[in-house]
UniProtKB/TrEMBL annotation:
UniProt cross-references to SMART domains, sorted A to Z: PKS_KR (SM00822)
Family matches, as PROSITE patterns: ADH_SHORT
Name used for this protein in its record: 2,3-dihydroxy-2,3-dihydro-p-cumate dehydrogenase
Uppermost EC category: oxidoreductase
Domain Ketoreductase: 6-193
Length: 252
């Protein structure tokens, strides 16, 4: 699919990878519906895309809230009159060990900490995909959905919630590629390694240095390197049901 004039929703696009993908796709002429919770950052992202000469609009929406997602997708379709793409990018971290033993006491990972990540990183992907795919079928727009998984899907210590959600997102990519192909909808995923965004900046500098040393390419990735992978999935009409791993070789 050529990106020029295609209408694409990007969730979590106020900053980080979502923002980089928005700017990258706007440079290729896509029209963008940008979703986030943070109005100021969202407006900055919209302005950056508009500066590249494309139509871009902001939508405040919590991807984990069914009614908000339904309303937002309806609104995007009404505003643009078409819908060709979705990037399920919004995500959060709430790391913690399943059990931590300190001074003879066992501290358990709270259910709320588990659930917060599952709600945004997994249920949010389900809700956005369901609503967008239904709208694509209704509007007879052949479309493409890109999920953002993670290298953490292989299982990271301290990330029960996040690893589970990102592994599920990779497997849903296969399920939905099979289910939606008959409607002309392709579904792919990108599994980034460690990329230099605020999410990773929250790690301690020593931990980051150690991490980079263990990556064959010896550095963190750049947001732009994930954005170009997402663009590849949109533009290659024979790509579906697969996860592109863009991680500097960290799992080799
Ligand atoms: P980030 O924290 O910099 O940005 C995430 C954005 O999502 C923020 O703008 C935030 O406001 C928005 N958001 C959070 N919860 C939301 C919700 N409920 N509804 C709508 N928007 C919401 O994160 P990032 O590093 O840019 O990561 C983006 C995606 O890439 C995430 O899914 C993350 O898990 C994944 N990822 C990131 C890395 C990395 O190294 N940065 C690696 C692998 C995967």
């Amino acid at each position: 699919m050529h990106l020029k004039d295609k209408v694409i929703i990007i969730t979590g696009s106020g900053q980080g990878l979502g923002r980089a993908m928005a700017e990258h796709l706007s440079c290729r002429g896509a029209k963008l519906a940008l979703i986030d919770l943070n109005p100021e950052k969202l407006q900055e992202a919209v302005s950056a895309c508009q500066a590249n000469g494309v139509e871009a609009r902001a939508y405040i929406c919590n991807v984990a809230d069914e009614a908000q997602v339904e309303r937002t997708v309806q609104q995007v379709a009404a505003d643009f009159g078409a819908l060709h793409g979705l990037i399920n990018n919004a995500g959060i971290l709430r790391d913690g060990l399943l059990l931590k033993v300190k001074d003879g006491e066992i501290h358990k990972l709270p259910l709320a900490q588990w659930q917060a990540v599952i709600d945004v990183n997994l249920t949010g992907v389900f809700l956005c995909t369901r609503e967008v795919a239904a709208k694509m079928i209704e509007l007879q727009c052949a479309g493409t959905i890109v999920n953002i998984s993670s290298v953490s899907r292989a299982g990271n210590m301290g990330q029960s919630n996040y690893s589970a959600a990102k592994a599920a997102v990779a497997s849903l990519t296969v399920v939905w590629a099979k289910e939606l192909a008959r409607y002309g909808i392709r579904v792919g995923a990108v599994a980034p390694g460690f990329i230099g965004t605020d999410m990773v900046a929250s790690m301690k500098p020593e931990a980051l240095e150690k991490l980079a040393a263990g990556i064959p390419l010896k550095r963190l990735g750049q947001p732009e390197e994930i954005a170009s992978a997402a663009a590849f999935i949109f533009e290659n009409d024979y790509f579906t049901g697969r996860v592109l791993e863009v991680d500097g070789g960290i799992r080799l």
